[in-house]
Amino acid sequence: MQKMLRKCGVILALLSAVGSAPASAETMRVTLLGTGTPILNINRFGISVLVDAGKQKLLFDAGRGVAMRLHQRQVPLRDISAVFISLLNSDHITGLPDLYATAPLPTDDGRLKTPMTLFGPDSIENVARGIELMFKDQNRMRMLEGEVVEPATHIDAKRVEPGIVYERDGVKVSAFLIEHGHVKPDFGYRIEYGGHAVVITDDTTYSENLVAHSKHADLMVQSVAIGSRALERAAPDYVNHFYGYLASPESAGRILSEAKPKLAVFAHISLYSLPDIPRATVDELRERIQAVYRENFVIGEDLMTFDIDDRGVTQAPYSSEVRQQEPRT
Fold first, then answer.
1. Distance between CA 115 and CA 167 in Å, rounded?
2. Phi-psi sector, 195: left (phi>0), alpha (psi -120 to 50), beta
3. Distance from C-alpha of 106 to C-alpha of 124, rounded to nearest angstrom
4. Dihedral in degrees, nearest 10, Cα atoms 273, 276, 277, 279
5. In angstroms, rounded to a whole number, what is the distance separating the alpha carbons of residues 144 and 3?
6. Pair 84, 173: CB distance under 8 Å
7. Cα separation of the two ends of the chain
8. Do the Cβ atoms of 247 and 202 come closer than 8 Å?
9. Of 191, 199, 101, 217, which Cα lies nearest the Cα of 155?
């Protein structure tokens, strides 16, 4: 038994090392920090995706627990180059205050010396100013103690419009409009580097604009919502309400069939239920997508990592146990 435990420890250490090692100059690395939604789920933290490209570490959405997931992947919070928010629903921004307050602290993960760079839709300035106000007194006290520097108490908020929103060191980020019911604007992002492309969609249902901007990406991170067949039969109005602005398994399969990514991974996974009807299983989700989309895809989990280079898209070894592990140093 002890030998087996030691072996498991070695495997987890290797997985942690794979996840935290920097991408090479020719590689983009995508890490699913959180794959969840507003639905509380201990195994799926709030939606957030980290993209390493060249010298840039770009964070797309900042749901609950994002600072903890970055810590688990041994990515210092101070190293985040920019944060991109797709829409202002709570589950996309609840991790921002933690990220903002923790990054400047004199810790191994912290010591940020400059303002956070934050991109987002209309009213992203309200989010930035609100966070600054929330921590105004704690910032004053920490500056008196010499624990943070004044520039790091600011957030540089930039409003996103469709088109190129970020371009640095060969990395280009473009924003495009996607469809999420009454929530407008809602943005997807396409990240290009070294001749490769990653598309991150988050909350959306099918739209021609989504497909057009996702064509032939190396990796497509796509959202999906599912009520089990039992839930759909028992409460069709309840489930169809969500399917009106979130991609059902069948709608998600259609999106991928038309976009044709080299590999698709599902994140921002909405698992609906009622007190007497449990959530759909991963197997049901997979089977229903496969009925529409016959190519390869992955049902994402927190801390999965993918590398994109001239050889294609490679998923790093993964064990769900890493979600509960303190990083090994």
1. 18
2. left
3. 28
4. 50
5. 51
6. yes
7. 25
8. no
9. 101
CB 270 within 8 A of CB 225: yes
Tokens of 177: 């409009």
- The per-residue pLDDT for range 128-168, each reduced to its tens digit, is 999 999 999 999 999 999 999 999 999 999 999 999 999 99
C-alpha distances in angstroms, 70 versus 59, 176, 324?
10, 26, 13
Pairing of strands 155-159, 116-120: parallel
β-pairing verdict for 297-299 and 155-159: unpaired
Q: Inform me whether the pLDDT recorded for 185 exceeds 50.
A: yes
Q: What is the Cα–Cα distance from 307 to 284, expressed in whole angstroms?
A: 27
pLDDT digits (tens, 9 = 90+) for 220-266: 999 999 999 999 999 999 999 999 999 999 999 999 999 999 999 99
Phi then psi for 105, rounded to 5 degrees?
A: -70, 155
Question: Rounded to an integer, what distance in angstroms lies between the CA atom of residue 297 and that of residue 247?
Answer: 16
Q: Is the peptide bond before 185 cis (omega within 30 degrees of 0)?
A: yes
* pTM for this entry: 0.91
Q: Please name the residue that has the structure tokens 């929330």.
A: 134
Provide, for the chain, the percentages of residues in helix, strand and coil under a 3-state DSSP scheme, each rounded to the nearest 5: 35, 30, 40
Tell me the residue type at 26. Answer: E
pLDDT at 24: 54
Bridge partner list, 271: 226
Quote the CA–CA distance of 302 and 47 in Å, as a whole number. Answer: 9
Is residue 1 very low, low, confident or very high in pLDDT (cuts 50, 70, 90)? very low
